[in-house]
Amino acid sequence: MDLRNWDFTDNRTLSLDGQWEFYPRVLLQQKNNSEHFIPDDKVFIDVPGTWNNAIDDDKNPTFGYGSYRLRLLIHPDKDQLIMIEAGPPGACFNSLK
Question: Is the residue at 51 inside a domain?
């Protein structure tokens, strides 16, 4: 999502709804401030939404794990504080640089 022209002073709240990358059965991680590995086997799913069609488990696609990924493009030279409010209690997330 390209936010380089977004005016954060006038528009303080931005919805991140839309198409996100989803990696079924993959937990994306970054170790020791190094580059992180992003696999090629991604699918795009709507957020908010379910991952039921992305998890190919015939038994019960509502159970499983995976990683969502959304890239936010901002001006690195601007002094901006950005806060992301994450979903329901029990959800966990990690911010990767």
Answer: yes
Judge residue 13's burial from the number of C-beta atoms within 10 Å of its C-beta, 0-12 exposed, 13-18 middle, 19 or more buried: exposed
How are strands ordered across the β-sheet holding 43-47? Answer: 43-47, 18-24, 66-69
> By the 8 A CB rule, do 64 and 37 touch?
no
Is the backbone of residue 32 left (phi > 0), alpha (psi -120 to 50) or beta? left
The predicted model scores a pTM of: 0.71
Q: Domain count of the chain? A: 1
Residue 96 resides in a domain? no
Beta bridge partners of 4: none
Range of the domain at 7: 1-91
pLDDT tens digits along 24-78: 888 887 666 666 677 788 899 998 888 887 877 666 666 778 888 888 888 777 6
